[in-house]
């Protein structure tokens, strides 16, 4: 059961509510901003509080929590704190089956479809599924595609997968179509946290043309003009983590750019 819900949450409460928001945003051409909170970073209570409060004040649409490699043992506490501080849907972006919490509203149930690591295509899902069900979390079947962002990232190392080359939009489009045909409900194009380069607008446009699914884009996004360009190419949700850790006030400009 979800615990610690704020009264404001009732707007988003029904199962499937987060997925519905993604589809509605795509249908209406309304772009969404997701703030990614790394639970290791979230151990600093004051910084976490400031980041979440800024996210709410700046009208960020979603709060993602997760990371590909965590050192904290207080993942659940971090999610509970984010939920208690915010009136936004809290969505888990788990790097492993250990990153589940009943304090969240939903989980991106990620299949790393750009890779060929069976554990990340089905193994971790089998491990996590009973807990996801028991917690009553909304699971959003997500085709996660790692794209080369100019240098190896933690996620490429930890997942032991080869990213899609940055200049191969056709591979990304074919992979996204496969994900859609397999029944996945959203596509996440990511160059990884702190990447030097974002996913290219050309690749986003190719994926947009290939599938109807909502498209989430993250990795290396640091300024509003770039975020806007990625939205115009077809991204429905822009995810930013590292840039807000470095400058929590940046969220206001980014939010304005994304919301247009
Ligand atoms: C990483 O998409 C996210 O998986 C966000 O990346 O930390 O570079 O913003 P950044």
What would your notes on this structure say?
- By secondary structure, the chain is α/β, with parallel strands linked by helices.
- The chain has one domain: TIM Barrel, CATH 3.20.20.
- The protein has helices at residues 17-28, 45-57, 75-85, 118-135, 154-159, 169-181, 201-210, 224-233, 242-246, 250-259, and strands spanning 32-37, 62-65, 90-92, 106-112, 138-146, 186-190, 215-218, 237-240.
- An eight-stranded parallel barrel has the order 1-2-3-4-5-6-7-8, surrounded by eight helices.
- The longest helix has 18 residues, at 118-135.
- The protein is globular and about 45 Å long.
- The model is unreliable at 1-15 (pLDDT under 50).
- SN-glycerol-1-phosphate is lined by residues 36, 190, 192-195, 218-221, 239-243.
Features:
single chain; 260 residues; alpha/beta; TIM Barrel; 8-stranded parallel barrel; disordered N terminus; binds SN-glycerol-1-phosphate
SSE map:
Elements: H1 17-28, E1 32-37, H2 45-57, E2 62-65, H3 75-85, E3 90-92, E4 106-112, H4 118-135, E5 138-146, H5 154-159, H6 169-181, E6 186-190, H7 201-210, E7 215-218, H8 224-233, E8 237-240, H9 242-246, H10 250-259
Parallel strand pairs: 1-2, 1-8, 2-3, 3-4, 4-5, 5-6, 6-7, 7-8
Bound molecules: SN-glycerol-1-phosphate.
Residues 36, 190, 192-195, 218-221, 239-243 line the site of SN-glycerol-1-phosphate.
Helix content: 40-55%
Distance between the termini: 36 Å
Instruction: Give the CATH H-level superfamily.
Output: FMN-linked oxidoreductases
- What's the number of structural domains? 1
Mean pLDDT: 92
Main sheet properties: 8 strands, parallel, barrel
Instruction: Assign the CATH class.
Output: Alpha Beta
The Cα radius of gyration reads 17 Å
Give start-end ranges of low-pLDDT stretches: 1-15
| Molecules bound to protein | SN-glycerol-1-phosphate
Strand percentage lies at 15-25%
CATH topology: TIM Barrel
Order of helices and strands: HEHEHEEHEHHEHEHEHH
